[in-house]
Fold this protein.
Amino acid sequence: QWLKDLGMDGSQITQAIAKFPHLLGCSLSNCKPTVQWLKDLGMDGSQVKKTIAAHPKLLSFKSKIHLIRTVKRLRDSGMDDSQVAKSIANFPSLLSYRET
């Protein structure tokens, strides 16, 4: 229900669950701050839905440290906030990247 409340349609929800079945067990107390974080980056509702559908695992991340570091790297490369939001919406897997 929560994903529907975000405005995701049935196919987006199905896609998200198919990619990450554990999404069904994710705590809302973890998911909601992640969605808010995406919005705070400047993503609009359609970009948030697209990002979650493409990369639902990010809702399970307990620590936002590596997400913040990824955004910092993108900003340090010269991107402004709207470019960062657009890049993540188009390539959500960027948020999974971890430097070693």
Notes: The chain has a mean pLDDT of 88. The helical segments are 2-5, 10-19, 28-40, 45-54, 65-76, 81-90. The two ends are 37 Å apart (CA to CA). Residues 38 and 44 are 9 Å apart (CA to CA).
